[in-house]
C-alpha cells in the first residue's frame, strides 16, 4: 500500500508526480531542485545557496512523513558540473552526522529541470 506525501513546505510538483511516496516504512522522495516553496522562484545565486534550498526542501518532505535526515539510507545527487562537487558536498554533508550518513551516488548530467545545477532525491526508512 502506498501513501502519497505532499507538503506546502516544499515546492509543489510541476508534473504527474508527488513529492514522495511512503510504502510500508520506506519513503521514496522525488528529486528536489532549488525552488522556494512559497514563491516558486529559483534560489540559485550561488551553488551553496542552491544546494541549501534543495536540502531544505528535502527536509520538509521528510518532516511531512515524520522523518528526518537520520532516516535517510540512500541519496542520489545529480549535478550539472562536477567541478561544483566540493561545494555541494560541503552543504550536503552539513545535514548529516558523518558516522551515520547514508549511501550515495553523485552523477554529472548534461542538463536538469529549469537548468538548475543540482537535484537530489532520497530513500528513507522509519
TrEMBL record:
CDD domains: YjgF_YER057c_UK114_family (cd00448). Gene3D superfamilies: RutC-like. SUPFAM superfamilies: YjgF-like (SSF55298). It holds the Pfam family Ribonuc_L-PSP. Belongs to the RutC family. This is RidA family protein. It comes from Lutibacter holmesii. The lineage of its organism: Bacteria, Pseudomonadati, Bacteroidota, Flavobacteriia, Flavobacteriales.
Amino acid at each position: 500500500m502506498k501513501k502519497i506525501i505532499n507538503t506546502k513546505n516544499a515546492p509543489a510538483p510541476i508534473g504527474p508526480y508527488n513529492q514522495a511516496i511512503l510504502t510500508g516504512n520506506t519513503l521514496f522522495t522525488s528529486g528536489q531542485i532549488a525552488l522556494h516553496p512559497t514563491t516558486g522562484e529559483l534560489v540559485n545565486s550561488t551553488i551553496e545557496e542552491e544546494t541549501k534550498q534543495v536540502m531544505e526542501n528535502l527536509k520538509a518532505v521528510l518532516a511531512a512523513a515524520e522523518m528526518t535526515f537520520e532516516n535517510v539510507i540512500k541519496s542520489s545527487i545529480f549535478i550539472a558540473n562536477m567541478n561544483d562537487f566540493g561545494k555541494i558536498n560541503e552543504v550536503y554533508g552539513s545535514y548529516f552526522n558523518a558516522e551515520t550518513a547514508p549511501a550515495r551516488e553523485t552523477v554529472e548530467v548534461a542538463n536538469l529541470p529549469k537548468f538548475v545545477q543540482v537535484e537530489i532525491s532520497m530513500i528513507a526508512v522509519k
